[in-house]
Structures are given as C-alpha cells and as structure tokens.
Amino acid sequence: MFHLGFFTCFASDEWNGPLAGHSASFADGRFHVDTARDLERACFDFVLHEDSLAVPEVFGGSRDVYLEEALVTPEHDPVPLTVAVGAHTPRTGVAATTSTTFHSPFALARLSSTVDGLTPGRFGWNTATSTGDGVAADFGAPQLLDHDDRYDLADEFVDAAEALWNSRDEGAVVMDHATGRCADLARVRPADFRGRWLRTRGPLDTVPSPQRRPVLVQAGASDRGRAFAARNAEVVVATARGIEAMRAYRDDVRARMVESGRDPDSCEVLFLVTPIVGRTGEEARAQHDDLTRTRRHQVDVLARLSAYTGHDLSVHDLDAPLPPIATEGSAGLLARLAQWGSRKSLRQCLAEMGFASDCLDLVGTAESVAEEMAAAMEEVGGDGFLLGAPGFQPSRVHVASITEALVPALQRRGVVRSRSEFETFRQNLPAF
Ligand SMILES: Cc1cc2nc3c(=O)[nH]c(=O)nc-3n(C[C@H](O)[C@H](O)[C@H](O)COP(=O)(O)O)c2cc1C
Hints:
The longest helix is centred in the middle third of the chain and has 19 residues. The protein folds into 2 domains: 293 residues, Luciferase-like domain (TIM Barrel, Alpha-Beta Barrel), CATH 3.20.20; 71 residues, no CATH class. The protein has 432 residues and is α/β, with parallel strands linked by helices. The strands form 4 sheets. An 8-stranded parallel barrel has the order 1-2-3-4-9-10-11-14, surrounded by 4 helices. Strand 5 and strand 6 form a beta hairpin. Helix content is 40%, strand content 13%. The model has no long low-confidence stretch (mean pLDDT 93). It binds flavin mononucleotide (FMN). The site of flavin mononucleotide (FMN) has 21 residues, from strand 4 and strand 10. Flavin mononucleotide (FMN) binds next to strand 4 and strand 10.
C-alpha cells in the first residue's frame, strides 16, 4: 500500500474555474474546507498547503503578469488556513509551508505547537528555504543568503526549534486540581540554543502539543537539499522525471539517511503528479491538451520558472533553443523545460512540458491511471504520491475527479487506505 497527499495553494482557481459562481473568493477558506472534507472521505493522509513570500518581478522585469494573471500570487498565509481546515477534518494531516530563512525558531516552535494543539495532533511543517531576492527585500534583508548557506541556516533552525519543543518533558504539565499546581518545575528547562546564526533561550511558553513537534515535510531537490532531508525530514515531496529517476531519488534519500544514522523507514518519499482523469482515455487526453497547450499554460510555466530561477525567460526567442542559463534557483525544473542538447525550440519544449513538476504523465481513465500508479510504486519501491492540480491551483472539478473516480479505483486495487486508522498525522506514516 502507499500514501496519498494533496498539494494545494491558498489562491485556488475557483474564482475563474468551471464552478466559479459557487465561491467567488478564495480568502474565506471555504473552498479548502470543502475540498479537504472530500479528500478526508477519500482517506488522504494529508493536505499540504504551499507558500511563497513575494510578488515576483522577474518575468518581463515586472510584477504585472504575476498580478494580472494570478501566477504565484495572490498568496495568503497557509498556517491559519490549516486551523480552519483541521477544524472540519478530524482525521487528515494538515501541513503548511513556512520559511526557515524568514521566520524565527521561537515564533515557529510556538506557532506550530499552538496549531498542533488546535488540530489536534495533525500539523505538518513544510520547511522551505525560500528563493528570490524580492523575498529578502520584503523582509528588510539586504540580500538572500546563498543557496547552501540557506540550508545550513535551516539545519540550525530545526535544531533550535527542537530544543524549544524539548524544553518541557513528558509529564511537565500536571494540572493538579488538589494542589492547584499546573507545571512540574523539574520537567521544564531553558533551551539555551546558540548557533552560528540563531540563538534562543526558552523554555517554550506553550504546553507540549499532541505530536510535540509537527511532522517535518521537505522538498529540497539539490544535493544540499537532500542532505537536509536526510537529517530532518519525515516526509519528502519530490519531483523526479520518470520511474528510473524516482527510484534513484528515493534510494539516494534513504542512503543519505543511513549515513546520518537514521532509519530510512522513518521517512516517506512521495512523488508529485497531476492525474487527469476522464471517462475515456481520449477524453482525458483532450482535457490534458486543452490545459497544457494554452497561452495561459505557457505563460504560467515561463513566469513561474522565471520566479523560481531568478532569470527572465521572456527575453528568449520562442523559435530557438534556450541557451545555457546559470541559476541559484530551480536548476532541475529549468533543465526539464530546456531539454538542453536536444536542439528543440523553446516553443516546442513548452508544448512538451506538460505539468512542469510532474514525475509521471498520468492521463486516462480512473482505472488506467490507478493501474499506472500502482505499477510505478511497485517499481520505485516507494511510499506514495503527492497529487497536485493544473497550475498548482485546484478546482472543485479537479478534486472531484480525484476523490470520486481515481481514489475509488485505487481502493478497489487495495493499494491505498479505505479507512482512516490513526489519530495523529505522524502515526499514519509508518503504517506501510
Ligand atoms: C512538491 C513540492 C512542493 C514545494 N513547495 C514549496 C513551497 O510551498 N514553497 C517554497 O518556497 N518552495 C517550495 N518547493 C521548492 C523546494 O522547497 C525547493 O526549493 C526546490 O525543490 C529546489 O530544491 P533545492 O532548494 O534543494 O535546490 C516545493 C518543491 C516541491 C517539489
């Protein structure tokens, strides 16, 4: 059996989607509450809310296309959204992305402890190191730290947060009615963390939450990103193109975990896919082509990749191959688009790109896609999938195609859960 997670962003496509009349705004969170209920009924392990922290100004040297066409932005803070969603979904994990570069360990440890108490026991923290100089400017930093330094900082951030979560032992909260004593003083201590960048005293001022620390989710693809994952992550969400690359990715993360002294089975590696499900294979293929051959999709890919790489892709001739481009950002996604060495024009590459970060192209009937997913997991030896939506912006129609058609087909094969078994997000993970 394997795990299912769902990847979503705050600004869903519903304002402009096929059922737009139902929820004109995304900001009240209703869309996410409704869809999370559907995902819970389909026994998803968790919903992962992404985040990015700035209105990019890279594509065309301007923020216009991002604002006007709702690409990367608008974005609202995903952490409060997980509380709203968690209040209506008593069994699904709710994970939110928070930056280790622009948050403080004390604030994050306190926030996550609070949310894990409110949800209760189902909060996950997707650690992002953040890219783009715009983020640094928004947070008043002179510039963004270099890529690998951001990961060194992130390691330190996790250690500092860990020290804070551990500043109260099990049993520190006694709440003794007879004596009126709330805490056992012998079980509370300062964290006293001092690193190269970060310091915090503690103790944390919250009571320990049901999971004590949130489930740590991570998506770093680079060498340094994988080293961070091997040291810290309990769930890795990955993009690797094709079965071979997926297997190599998982094997690599697991080998690095062994080197770091961790049990490789204490981390699940889930692969990002965007299944497009139709009543027939032809219908699904037509739907996929309608979604990926549009001007909007091309602009989405170019503007998004410009933001993720810091390189303005609008300056390149669509009818020539992309020249080599150096980036401190998403080199892997850029290579996937460019197909360097193939001599294909950028226009041709865009037509072949499909959904940018997908590991597999899953297009067909519910039965055929379920079969492909099950076969892929057999070959990869893997732990599951993170299901995304076209343009990362889910619609009710897309979610329904997953929960009402694809998941039942997977359940009929016995490869995913048919009922939720555990109370906390973390308890779900080692079940298979
Ligand atoms: C499934 C998935 C989800 C991601 N979600 C976010 C996110 O919400 N916010 C963010 O800043 N980066 C996000 N990223 C980017 C990663 O954090 C990371 O920066 C990227 O994969 C490049 O890896 P590297 O940082 O190790 O070079 C995501 C990546 C993947 C594959």
